[in-house]
Amino acid sequence: MSDVHQLDFLEEKISQLKEQGVFRELPELNGPSGAVSVINGREVINLSSNNYLGFANHPRLKKAAIQAVEKYGAGAGAVRTIIGTMDIHNRMEKLLADFKREEAVIVFQSGLTCNSGTIPAVVDEGDLIISDELNHASIIDGCRLSKADVLRYRHSDMEDLERVLKENAHKYRNRLIITDGVFSMDGDIARLPEIVELAEKYECMTYIDDAHASGVLGESGRGTVDHFNLHGRVDFTIGTLSKAIGVMGGYVAGKKVLIDWLKHRGRPFLFSTAHPPAVVGAVIEAVKMLMESTEYTDKLWDNARYFKQKLQGLGFNTGKSETPITPVIIGEEAKAMQFSDRLFQGGVFAQGIAFPTVPRGTARVRTIVTAAHTREQLDRAVDIFKEAGQEMHIL
Ligand SMILES: *Cc1c(COP(=O)(O)O)cnc(C)c1O
Fold first, then answer.
1. Would you place residue 356 in the very low, low, confident or very high pLDDT band (cuts 50, 70, 90)?
2. What pTM does this model have?
3. For residue 209, which atom of ligand 1 is closest to its CA?
4. Average pLDDT value for residue range 356-370
5. What angle do CA 257, 214, 244 make, to 5 degrees?
6. Per-residue confidence band for 45, with pLDDT thresholds at 50, 70 and 90
């Protein structure tokens, strides 16, 4: 007789992962996330963080976090809607709304909870969601939690999007087109001007998840809506505070009526505790830094262009990347993983990514340079890529 409490069913699943060679031990950071980090005890050039602007360990953010702890304590004490809203939470939201040039902002615990909380709050039974096939997992979760029907269109394929709209839009009460602003595995940018035009033609609302564009694209990192100058034409913009902003959290920016509604129906906002003061203090400081100057985003883009050009010059396949996310596409799954290991031995951390995260046969290592990397570090990384690429007959 089997004992269900032995969790044999999970043992079996874990064995399968091991057989498929996809069981992973997590790499461990032994110190802060930075341009150079100590990972698994070894000092390497870190090309796998989302710490685009180097804010995660920035002295100004650290200081602001410590000051907030001293003034407000370690925890918020309650969910936002009971008595967890401190004056700094409100100040953070007001500042973000100014930054985004939108009427209002609501902050959730993460980008993930923005999607899982907002989508079901704004579309319901009788409504339709039209979603890019490569949208982030948290958008897929948000769609599943809503009672709306969901149809997908081929990645960034505007003809396919229009086909879906033409065949289906008229059958539903409200229609919502959802897309990532920047796609995380290829680093390509959504075709937002065309999406907005189609949305206007077929009377759809638009929802952009700008996680990888927040602090990256647009003036001082205001996002894809700003990048394409589409202010006022996108209904829901999601940003994250966990990537370029360097801390943790997510926000929804839009009309005041939307934000008021989410304060009543955004479930993570209602049922999960407010951000601790340290997080809020650091986020406020980060947004202020972006509003003061374009220094950080300028440096990020200089570095990104430089590094991408060098990799392309060597003959690596960087796919359709248009942003600081630069994949180096290897193809075969095992080879991509070996390449990543070889880079690590050489002194570069660049995570290998394979099926099911990316389609079979397009396995890759994914790089993200940051504003914090120096030219010397990038040159050194390029040399290590070259050595490893030649040794493994990728070049
Ligand atoms: C990273 C990411 C998220 C999640 O953001 P967190 O703040 O880390 O929860 C959501 N959507 C997209 C597109 C992302 O890339």
1. confident
2. 0.96
3. 13
4. 94
5. 135
6. very high
Single-letter amino acid code for the residue at 323: T
Catalytic residues, by residue number, are: 184, 212, 243
Q: CA-to-CA distance for 392 and 395, rounded, in angstroms?
A: 8
Q: How far is CA 32 from CA 28, 54, 63, 110, 343, in A?
A: 11, 11, 15, 20, 21
Question: Are the C-beta atoms of 353 and 364 separated by less than 8 Å?
Answer: yes
The strand ranges marked E within the chain are 36-39, 42-46, 104-108, 128-132, 149-153, 175-180, 205-209, 236-240, 250-254, 325-331, 348-349, 352-353, 363-368
Residue in 309, 302, 384, 285 with CA at minimum distance from that of residue 341: 384
* pLDDT 10s digits, 280-321: 999 999 999 999 999 999 999 999 999 999 999 999 999 999
In percent, how much of the chain has pLDDT > 70? 99
Ligand 1 binding pocket, CB closer than 6 Å: 110-112, 136, 138, 180, 184, 209, 211-212, 240, 242, 250
Q: How many angstroms separate the alpha carbon of residue 166 from the centre of ligand 1?
A: 30
Instruction: List, for residues 88-103, the tens digit of each pLDDT value.
Output: 999 999 999 999 999 9
Burial of 365 (0-12, 13-18, 19+ CB in 10 A): buried
Separation between Cα atoms, residue 374 and residue 319, nearest integer Å: 24
| Residue 125 backbone class (left: φ over 0; alpha: ψ -120 to 50; beta: rest) | beta
Residue type, 278: A
Distance of CA 299 to the CA centre of its chain: 20
Torsion of CA 57, 58, 59, 61, to 10 degrees: -90
Nearest CA to ligand 1 atom 7: 111
Lowest mean pLDDT among 12-16, 23-27, 307-311: 23-27
Report the alpha-carbon distance of residue 346 to residue 85 in Å, rounded. 48
Alpha-carbon distances, residue 305 vs 33, 224, 245, 300 (angstroms): 22, 18, 21, 9
Q: What is the DSSP string of 86-105?
A: -HHHHHHHHHHHHHHTSSEE
CA of 209 to the centre of ligand 1 (A): 8
Alpha-carbon dihedral angle through residues 381, 387, 391, 392, given to the nearest 10 degrees: 20
